[in-house]
Write a structure and sequence with these properties.
Elements (H helix, E strand, L loop, with lengths): L1 E5 L3 E5 L11 H8 L2 H17 L3 H14 L3 H16 L11
Antiparallel strand pairs: 1-2
């Protein structure tokens, strides 16, 4: 169980991955404070939250950044998530995936 700010600053105890609202400065905070092994996972989680909130264009930009920085399996996951964003944005599937 963890505590999180939700909807205008109210603090709540949450279990699992409940309804979390992301602010614009959240990504920068994740980039600056996350431990190195968990940094990309934290940024994936942030982008996934944006995707669930129907902010496909913002999520796609983050997935593209991860795709350019990662190798191997995480890079493939980022490519699949970019394709999912493209589908929601009615763009070609490979748009934004530079291999």
């Amino acid at each position: 169980m963890w505590t999180c700010e939700i909807n205008g600053g109210a603090r709540r105890e949450l279990r699992g991955t409940g309804a979390v609202t992301c602010r614009d400065d959240d990504l920068e905070r994740l980039r600056s404070t996350s431990a190195r092994p968990f940094k990309s996972k934290a940024i994936f989680l942030y982008a996934d939250t944006l995707y669930v909130q129907s902010q496909y264009a913002r999520a796609k930009v983050i997935y593209q950044k991860l795709h350019s920085e990662l190798n191997g399996y995480p890079r493939e996951i980022a490519a699949k998530k970019i394709a999912a964003c493209n589908k929601e944005l009615n763009l070609p599937q490979a748009d934004g995936i530079n291999d």
